[in-house]
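Posted in: Structural Biology > Protein-Ligand Complexes

Title: Requesting predicted complex, adenosine-5'-triphosphate in pocket

I'd be grateful if someone could produce the 3D structure tokens for the following input. Sequence and ligand are given below.
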Amino acid sequence: MAAAAYLEMRGVAMRFGDGAQAVSALDSIDLSIAEHEFVTIVGPSGCGKSTLLYLVGGFLRPTAGGVYLRGRGIDKPGPDRGIVFQRYSLFPWLTVRKNIGYGLEEKGVARVERDRIVGEYVRLVHLEGFEDRYPRELSGGMQQRVALAQTLACQPDILLMDEPFGALDAQTRRILQDEVRRIWRRDTKTVLFVTHDVEEAVALGTRIVVMSARPGRIKEVVTRGFDVADGEEFEANPAFAALKLHIWRSVKEEVKAARG
Amino acid sequence: MKMLPLALLVGAWQAAASAGLLPASVLPSFWEVAASLGGMLRSGEILPHTAASFGRAGAGFALGVAGGVVLGLLMARVRAVERAIEPILLLIYPVPKPALIPLFMVWLGIGDFSKIAVIALACLVPVVIAAYNGARSVDDMLIWSARARGTAQGRLLWRVVLPSALPQIAAGVRTAIAVAIIVLVSSEFISAETGLGYLIFSYGGVGADDAMLAVVIYLAVLGYALDRAYLAGLRRLMSWHAFAH
Ligand SMILES: Nc1ncnc2c1ncn2[C@@H]1O[C@H](COP(=O)(O)OP(=O)(O)OP(=O)(O)O)[C@@H](O)[C@H]1O
Ligand SMILES: [Mg+2]
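-- Reply #1 --
Done. Output follows.
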């Protein structure tokens, strides 16, 4: 018998509602992820990408099948799985500092140590000087960076990221992509990263999952056969361009199917 | 600028009285009322009544707000509490609370306790509803976010639900301030030897309309100042929230 995968979805289906109103968001999802993989997920809007992350997060329970972490069924959220939501959901009543330090505070990390760690992540996402602001005083992109720092500061084993850079400008996006890749390498984390952006999927993922139009199924899983270094101008890499085109065509087919 | 309509109203009132269009038996002139109020303030006779009223309204308000927040949050989070309280709340909601004063007097006597109890009940209602609605409309993502960052199920109420509901609770509390004043004065009409409601009622009873109106205006100004102070305090303490206007 093969060793159990680190993170595994077996025969997962997810339906919302019942009767005639029921929406089938995911169907027969089988996916095995090894520890320290960086898996990116692309697919048309509404195909169940967020739902898939919520299942791994333990926020939702599948209507069929199971989601397992180290062979144990996931049945609730936990700080071992950090998530950056698609709609940045910071606590509006907490300052940037307190938002980023939230998980540390819940863990009981002492104030001084907490402030030190928060300072590190503030620098990471380039928000120096905004520590005492409230989320509503920040732009969408800044809020998204706080959400990223908030999640990273909890030091989760698994990072779930739901289109985390959608609201960012191209340069910031590139910087943070490199940053996430660097953190993934350094801290040997496992990352599940949903994106609309095919280039981002190829630039980050060691494996790329393409999902079909609703109900979301796994259409294909492509292993990227080459490494992308931090700061690399991957546009110049022919292998990169070829893979990007392949994924792009695959997604385009599904987007067309979704439009009917 | 905001005071202009008010100034016009007062001006028209005084002009009508000066022109002899308003017999004193219908409405004393603004000037007489103002003079009467000035006298009460100078002599200080209105102060002990103000203090007595403040004590009652403050006690009832504090009890009502505290109870309302706790009850509203519990209703939103605990199914059994919701089922038990909701019908009672819906029943109490349309009852004019001053109508309950005689009943409370039977139970608690004609002293301050019955007044405080009615004020507390009246303040409780808008706060329960606000806390309940606020807690029920908490964004799922915030709950999930907190859970994924280590907050245990049992601490969600304190860490996420209460703060999320605060803006709505704050609006409910603002209503409660006005309600406290209304019910206070009604309760002091019915039985009291002190308080602003008692003053209004007793001046009215002896036909001292200028003094009666002076107390009414005094009360209106106090209420207005309280409301302004409350809003200003909120904006400072809850600067994380974008309040309307
Ligand atoms: N709580 C819910 N109740 C009912 N339907 C839902 C719920 N959540 C998601 N759905 C439906 O399930 C499907 C998948 O939604 P999901 O948000 O996972 O898609 P997505 O791939 O993340 O889309 P996008 O790229 O636009 O973010 C959609 O059709 C959506 O309408
Ligand atoms: Mg989504």
